[in-house]
Amino acid sequence: MIWILIAIYVVILGLELPALLKRKTRLELWTFTAYFIIGLYMSLAFYYNWPLIEPFQALVNYVGSD
User: Fold this and answer.
1) Which of left, alpha, beta for 36 (phi over 0: left; psi -120 to 50: alpha)?
2) Model-level pTM?
3) Per residue in 12-55, pLDDT tens?
4) CA distances from 8 to 13, 28, 39, 49 (A)
5) Could you tell me which of 7, 20, 30, 65 has the fewest CB atoms within 10 Å of its CB?
């Protein structure tokens, strides 16, 4: 299963990265990199059952609930 996940991410990099590097748009490259790393981490966390903090739960905890 982990090999399929890695293969999918390698294919995504292979398809998207050359076009982004050719266009030389730094903002798009940084945005793609950020989303790619977040997606990779979330996929690995789901596979390995790592704890994930839900963003809305963290907001509720910060603001407080009645």
Assistant:
1) alpha
2) 0.72
3) 999 999 998 999 888 999 999 999 998 888 888 888 988 877 76
4) 9, 21, 12, 19
5) 65
